[in-house]
Design goal:
Oligomer: single chain
Largest sheet: 6 strands, mixed
Helix content: 25-40%
Number of helices: 12
Radius of gyration: 23 Å
Strand content: 15-25%
CATH topology of the largest domain: Purple Acid Phosphatase, chain A, domain 2
CATH superfamily of the largest domain: Metallo-dependent phosphatases
Number of strands: 12
Length: 376
């Protein structure tokens, strides 16, 4: 739906930014066509390749992503400019002596286009680079003294695909292993596309090393591309999916309950929906409980099940600075970072990768999250 909205709003950019230019009609029509085609990127991919997620070279995805993001940013900047125009018009009604903005349509167009291109190129680079490590300390009241300092690495929203291929995955694995975590978790959206076509890119994940294991919960994208196939692919690369299930991890003479739930997309495709109660059925009540849930909005149900910590993703942090509040409105107020619901802590990762359909991050960097648990 978002790409259709972007296509419609691109007509606004054409009407407000391109058509007022003092250029020959043919040139204005050509520029308008380029804007429209860039906005239609995903639809054109589907028409040409039968899917919005084609297996094409990464450089081609990068170029298409820059142009597509350029149009999105032009829409935003053009809207901000018009809001400024309106504010100044209202202000001059009250204060007639206020000066007007003396920029020609050509100056506005060149300025906004240059800024959008610069931000788009930077945003696509920031989206596709190997993320840095983000260190987080989370205090849990019920954490036994023996587990104080336990380190977990969380990966989320890897979206392994032509945009995030084997070389990128391998670099992520190297960064994770350099941290020497005791436990590794992946909170959904492992990849995009048919799993059999992603095995070569997933293969470096077999190199993940943690003495307590590598576990995951499912995101919505695993269901889009064949749930059973993605579960099989996960196991083949050494990841244990937790689908409304839990494991009891024994470490430092203590028990730690690690549970995972399915995604809310599941029932619409004939699979069981997320059920924290089922996931924790039979788990010891006095052990620390960690829940893997792709969507942060499930934290209320996790809290009802006496969960100490929920780890989530899904939001991508909003991707654009300022968009986090809009994203939070659709995710029960959660965007990224650490929250508390009752005594249950919630950490929402902004993601390690990104959906390649809109590969843009502006000042909302991806991360490999190293979590250190503390008593408190």
């Amino acid at each position: 739906m978002l790409h259709l909205l972007a296509t419609i709003l691109s007509l606004y950019v054409i009407a407000r930014l391109i058509l007022p230019l003092r250029l020959p009609l043919w040139l204005k029509l050509l520029l308008s066509l380029l804007v429209l085609l860039s906005a239609l990127k995903l639809s054109l991919f589907r028409l040409a390749f039968g899917t919005m997620m084609p297996d094409i070279p990464r450089w081609a995805l990068l170029g298409a992503g820059v142009l597509h993001s350029l149009v999105i940013l032009l829409i935003i900047l053009c809207a901000l400019r018009d809001a400024l125009f309106l504010a100044l018009w209202l202000a001059r009604k009250l204060f007639p002596s206020l000066p007007a903005l003396c920029f020609s349509p050509g100056q506005w167009a060149s300025g906004l286009l240059s800024l959008s291109l610069l931000l788009s190129a930077f945003g696509v680079w920031q989206a596709l680079r190997v993320p840095d490590v983000h260190h987080v300390t989370i205090s849990l009241p019920r954490l036994p003294a023996a587990l104080n300092g336990l380190r977990i690495v969380q990966l989320s929203d890897l979206h392994v695909s032509p945009a995030f291929p084997a070389a990128w995955v391998r670099a992520v694995v190297q960064k994770v292993n350099a941290l020497k975590p005791e436990l590794i978790v992946i909170t959904g959206d492992l990849g995009d596309g048919p799993p059999d076509r992603r095995m070569a890119d997933l293969a470096p994940l077999t190199g993940l090393r943690a003495p307590l294991g590598v576990f995951s919960c499912t995101g919505n994208h695993e269901y889009y591309w064949g749930f059973n196939g993605w579960m099989d692919a996960s196991r083949r690369v050494g990841i244990t999916p937790l689908n409304n299930a839990h494991v009891i991890v024994h470490t430092r003479g203590q028990e730690l309950v690690l549970a995972g739930v399915t995604d809310q997309t599941a029932p619409s495709l004939g699979f069981p929906g997320p059920d924290p109660g089922l996931a924790l059925h039979g788990a010891p009540a006095d052990a620390v409980r960690i829940m893997l849930a792709h969507r942060p909005r499930l934290v209320g149900k996790s809290a009802e099940e006496n969960v100490d910590l929920q780890l989530s993703g899904h939001t991508h942090g909003g991707q654009l600075i300022g968009a986090n509040r809009l994203v939070a409105r659709f995710n029960d107020g959660f965007s990224s970072g650490l929250y508390h619901v009752g005594r249950t802590a919630l950490y929402v990762s902004p993601g390690t990768g990104l959906w390649e359909g809109f590969p843009l991050r502006l000042f909302v960097p991806a991360e490999i999250t190293e979590i250190t648990l503390r008593q408190g």
